[in-house]
Amino acid sequence: MESKLPKRKIIRLKNYDYSSDGIYFITICANKRQKIFGNIDFQNQPSVILSKLGEKIDKTLKNISEIEKYIIMPNHIHFTLVLINSQNSVPKIVRKLKSDVSRGVNFPVWQRGYYDRIVRDEREYLNVCEYIENNPYNWDKDEYFY
Fold first, then answer.
1. Is residue 80 very low, low, confident or very high in pLDDT (cuts 50, 70, 90)?
2. Distances (CA, A) of 18 to 31, 53, 82, 95, 103
3. What is the mean pLDDT of the chain?
4. Is residue 45 very low, low, confident or very high in pLDDT (cuts 50, 70, 90)?
5. DSSP track, the chain
6. Exposed (0-12), middle (13-18) or buried (19+): which is 44, by Cβ within 10 Å?
7. What is the pLDDT of residues 90-125, one digit of tens each?
8. CB of 21 closer than 8 Å to CB of 110
9. What is the per-residue pLDDT for 86?
10. What's the rounded Cα separation, in Å, for the pair 136 and 53?
């Protein structure tokens, strides 16, 4: 009997070791892309005003030593992970982050899965950092905005 459920698309690189040394750009969305992490304040210069849940995410991100740069947006987060001789892998770090933030919250916080990109050189790294920094300025053009 054939399943009527949609097949889940695999978005990881096949045969890639996600515990390898390197820099990874990660995006994780809120469940159903709900704007539960905060709001964008467009007065003066755009900035993120975090909700209580957003503050919990902020605190959790600051306690993960492999995270170098991040931004918490109203319905998603972006961050860079730097793995150098790490005992962790990208999936383990993401799983722990999601778990720590979700603990004690009485509703689903996260969308299933996450998006990752392996940063391959310095130019791409600088572009990712600029993208993270400028994300609040581009909120109304963001693919996660709606």
1. very high
2. 24, 28, 11, 13, 25
3. 89
4. confident
5. ----SPPPPP-SPTT--TTSSEEEEEEEEBGGG---SEEEE-SSS-EEEE-HHHHHHHHHHHT-TTEEEEEE-SSEEEEEEEESS-S--HHHHHHHHHHHHHTT-SS--B-SS-EEEEE-SHHHHHHHHHHHHHGGGGGGG-TT--
6. exposed
7. 999 999 999 999 999 999 999 999 999 999 999 999
8. no
9. 85
10. 18
d(CA 103, CA 123): 37
Q: Which two tokens stand for residue 26?
A: 């990660």
* Rounded CA separation 94/99 (Å): 8
- Say how far apart CA 23 and CA 47 lie, in whole Å: 26
The Cα–Cα gap between 74 and 34 comes to 8
Nearest to 118 by CA among 14, 31, 29: 14
Average pLDDT of span 11-33? 86
pLDDT at 5 over 60: no
